[in-house]
Amino acid sequence: MTNVLTIEQLSYKHNLKTILENVDLTLETGKIVGLLGENGAGKTTLMRLITGSAKGSGTITVCGDRAVAHQKSNVSFTEQLKGFRANTKIDRIVDFYRAVYPDFNGQRFEELVTFLQIDTSLRLGALSKGMKEKVVIALTLARQTHLYLLDEPFSGIDSMSRKRIISSIIKWKPDDATMIISDHYVSEIAPILDEIVVVKDHTIYTHRQSDEIREEFGLGIEAYYESLYEGGVNHD
Amino acid sequence: MKFDDKVPIYYQIKNYLYHEMMTGTLGPGDKLPAVRQLAVDLTVNVNTVQRALGEMITEGTIESQRGKGNFVTMDTNRITQLKEQLVIEQLERVYNELHALNLTDEQILTSLQTYIERRGQQHD
Fold it and tell me: Which of A34, A88, A121, A229 is positioned for an S-S bond with A84, CB 3.0–4.6 A?
């Protein structure tokens, strides 16, 4: 099994405040990984470092390459569409993606649009939270690359949209690609996670396989995750 | 399908498929859905489905045919064996629970018999 991501001794400070310190993390190809941690723990920062949008000390290797340009082409991350104005139509955003990313696959995007029931003639400002998140998912998964990052795709989303989004992840994540999904509420995505990575105390506190947690502790992923904040796992 | 998050998912997928085989939804020689389709249907990870199927192939309850997919075994002995194994697993669970309540073997037998009789009456 090859590694899609290797992070060594990564540290990141913002305004003299330590956000992440001595982060070591290796992810294999073909996995779905839950990135867990409290609000403000540094999950989004870690994602931005992986894409090369933020720069810290230490090394990040994506698909065996350290250059930032390669990081960007090997990672698909749509950061909440912040760069677009509210009156931009979805179609225009799609045109932008098509122009900027050579790996953007129009046919995949159309399939995702149909499955997620997205109306691409709408303007960004007119979208509900759930619909906006669906657009983010469709844009992210329409690229054909090795590493996909989804930053809290389920926060404030109704359960029907959530189910659709989860199904689209299972359907469209390529077998040879890895996906990192961050969340602070894990139970609804727990069944689709191969492994979890917990960001706590400015570093990777835990990195384990989900079924190993269930087997070893007899605990659900949510309960295990919560136990990390209550001082250790109870063996009973 | 709803999963119990405390139990390994691959194990629950196996049990789900066993159940389909026991109830006849999946008969001997029937083709299983494709791996990704199973993953979508059950809302689980493709890798976890692979692991469950891999174990079932090893234990001989399903057979993999290169390029064609996975099929329920035609070996009816193997299916009978599986049924026995599933029954024993359930009995073991009940037996252990009742033993933990300090029931003797004899009491367990009597309670089970009474229970079945009462249930039978309810259903009439």
Answer: A88
pLDDT in tens, A173-185: 999 999 999 987 7
- From the CA of B53, how many Å to the nearest CA of chain A? 15
- Taking the CA of residue B45 and the nearest CA in chain A, the distance in Å comes to 4
ipTM: 0.84
Would you call B8 and A166 a contact, using CB atoms and an 8 Å cutoff? no
Q: Do B44 and A191 touch (CB under 8 A)?
A: yes
CATH topology of domain B9-74: Arc Repressor Mutant, subunit A (1.10.10)
The domain containing residue A185 runs over which residues? 3-227
CB contacts of A221 in chain B (<8 Å) are 5
Examine residue A156 and state whether it is found in any structural domain, yes or no. Answer: yes
Domain boundaries, chain B: 9-74, 77-123
- Rounded to whole angstroms, how far apart are CA atoms B117 and B25? 29
Distance CA A211, CA A154 (A): 22
Q: What is the CATH number of the domain that holds A75?
A: 3.40.50.300
Q: Residue A235: is its pLDDT beyond 60?
A: no
Question: Mutate which of A165, A214, A219 to disrupt the B interface (most B C-beta within 10 Å)?
Answer: A214
Give the list of residues 6+ apart from residue A115 with CB closer than 8 angstroms, or none: A164, A167, A168, A171
A192/B43 touch (CB, cutoff 8 Å), yes or no: yes
Least confident of A24-28, A94-98, A231-235, B25-29: A231-235
Tokens of A206: 């835990």
> Rounded to whole angstroms, how far apart are CA atoms B35 and B56?
13
> How many domains does one find in chain A?
1
- Rg of chain A over CA atoms, in angstroms? 18
